[in-house]
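Case study 2.
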Amino acid sequence: MISNSLALEILNAALATGGDYAEIYLEQNDTEGVLLDGGKVENVSARQSYGAGIRILQGFRSVYGYTSDLSKKSLLELASKLAASFEGQRQIEVKSIQKGKYKTINPIKTHLMDVPVEKRISYLKECSKASYEVDPRIIRVQDAMNFWHKSIRIYNAEGEVGKRFDTEEERGRLIMVAMAGEENKIETAFEGPGASNGWEFFESLDYIGKAKEVAQKAIATLSAKECPSGQYTVVITNGWGGVLFHEACGHPLEASATSKGLSVFSNSIGKQIASPLVSAWDDGTITNEWGSNNIDTEGVPTKKNELIRDGICVGFMVDRLNGRRLGMEPNGTARRESYRYAPTSRMSNTYIAAGKQTPEEIIADTKLGIYVANFGGGSVEPTTGQFNFSASEAYIIRDGKIAEQVKGCTLIGTGQEVLMNIDAVGNDLALGQGNCGAASGSIPVDVGQPTIRLSKITVGGRGGQLK
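Prediction:
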């Protein structure tokens, strides 16, 4: 890290040619991982990286550069080179730096990297053993435990007084993969719980239960038939089912898209974009959640941001640069993978709020349709909202009951269509952990929702018509 006096020099060098905002982002990232394959230790790793990124804004223009050389000479040279992108006279001279304030969102009791590697290996071996014991058709199990710790310092200024923010980020994730084989069939199942928390998260986790569950899912898929195709009523599970909302509707509500007219929701504030049953939030302040942070990577404290209220669009996720384009204040959603990326508006913990029906009532009220219990991969085009998502676990609903499992299920549609066709929202809100890749790199995010029902959506599959 660097001193306040050096930060003042760098900020003023960056602002020498007329920039109206300058920012220094410094980071040290420590990662550790343990991987078991077949119950045996395959890899134990530890890695450290560090560096700094400097950004200058002038109106709607932005320039960014980074370096892993944190010497005074290197940082001042980088600031001067970036400033040369603008032609103008100094508008701001930063004269002092004050300490920025924020609340601690993610308290830690036992730091992850203080836990001995032997204890982590023992934990993972229990997971592997539990998965293999489910069924002799489990042919391969991989279990991993990954830890991340970041020390971050941010200096920023758009006036005579700059601000300094120091924060820590700590995350841990358990990865479980089970493969089942029978004759010429091989099926895979995955679980990946994680949190912005310490070892207490892993101690509180029902890891043996999850290890058995991932193996059971792989076994069950072996006997699944091909999914039918057509337009059907679809019920989507809570938790990780929210990845559909995240991709098809969350990304188009980021200011990086809406501010440039590149989103189907660019001019939607105050307009109905969803069923009146739908309210949605992006909340970076949920204690110890996977996508939570004390501040964003521009130094803005994270917030609970309302996106949709009773079907009406009421907000976007707004970073500093795109907020200028929209005439909106930044709301703590500027994120980046590391110092190698400039920040932009990104999701944190994004979810559809809970409704009033129980999931059992929603299923019982569905005569014929598809129940999606888990998603695999997918893609979306923010400018059109068109998406294509594959379900890794799906079932037929018959006469209000979950019936036979099917595979090869794909949901095809648009974000607008999905939001407007939600006709039931459950009371069982849950969150699921994942990583989201976009312009500012790969970042940890929570997706979430209660059980929801779509009155109709196009389902792709190779199993003919649903009868």
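The two ends are 64 Å apart (CA to CA).
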